[in-house]
Amino acid sequence: KQAEKTVHQKKEQSKTKCRKARRRHINLVVEFNRRQRKNIWLETHIWHAKRFHMIKKWGYCLGDSPTEKCYRACYRAMTKHCLLQDLSYYCCLELTGKENELLKQLARICSIDTGLTFEEASCLSGRYEGSLNLYRADCYPEEMLGPVTFIWKPRDGSENRQLWIWMHPAVKQDILRELKAIFQCSEPEEIYVPEPVTTPIQEEKQMDVVLSLGKKRKKEDEEGEKAVPVKKIIGDGTRDPLQAYYWISQATGIVISDRTMEILRYRLIGPSSHSVLTETLKAASLQTV
């Protein structure tokens, strides 16, 4: 009798809900986290997945080619309006420490013969972004690591500076290994994970939130309050969630931090790019304590 009652309830549910609602996953956050175990999604993944053929490269799920013939529309946007590209899969390494020590060691992996370096005055002030090729320490012109772009944080009166270096995920591990070597950075004793990573057992418990009529049941904790929603998986396509994401040099005090997927990166192309930015971004009001 119980089985017949369950089948009858399912039939009633199928009549009241459309096919799209019946096929929708009961907990989309849990399902999305499960599908990101091997290949991380960008913030714009859902938008791209509906309009592009997706490919899995460098540990990410990226949009490869559009499903519709929109090449003319993209070209028109680039030449007359504005076209936005999501480059968040590019990896970002943050270097923090004394400016003199940073420049001294970074000079070993680049050369003035190839163009500008990290010491370029316009880039060192933090006003402009620079680009250059990196090599293994003291090996120029051999053993090239790959091209990177960088930007300094403007000076604030302190001798400590911050430098962000952007690179393709294919060359991230080689460049990171070289940076840790020249700055003599060691692995942290304990790896701190700022957010919990859901396990398969936890996901199965969170999946069991359906009543007999298919309605979501409010999960409660021991105190009777609403449960905290599931957070996104930590890590990125080039780093495991349980691996270290910062390294400290005991000799120089330089800190290398992996900021991949923490700092998003977008590229705007077209004559209307500046106007789009000015209309989208609003300056925050200054607050003095």
Automatic annotation (TrEMBL):
<feature type="domain" description="Pop1 N-terminal">
    <location>
        <begin position="3"/>
        <end position="97"/>
    </location>
</feature>
<dbReference type="InterPro" id="IPR039182">
    <property type="entry name" value="Pop1"/>
</dbReference>
<dbReference type="GO" id="GO:0005655">
    <property type="term" value="C:nucleolar ribonuclease P complex"/>
</dbReference>
<dbReference type="Pfam" id="PF06978">
    <property type="entry name" value="POP1_N"/>
</dbReference>
<protein>
    <submittedName>
        <fullName>POP1 protein</fullName>
    </submittedName>
</protein>
<dbReference type="InterPro" id="IPR009723">
    <property type="entry name" value="Pop1_N"/>
</dbReference>
<dbReference type="GO" id="GO:0001682">
    <property type="term" value="P:tRNA 5'-leader removal"/>
</dbReference>
<dbReference type="GO" id="GO:0000172">
    <property type="term" value="C:ribonuclease MRP complex"/>
</dbReference>
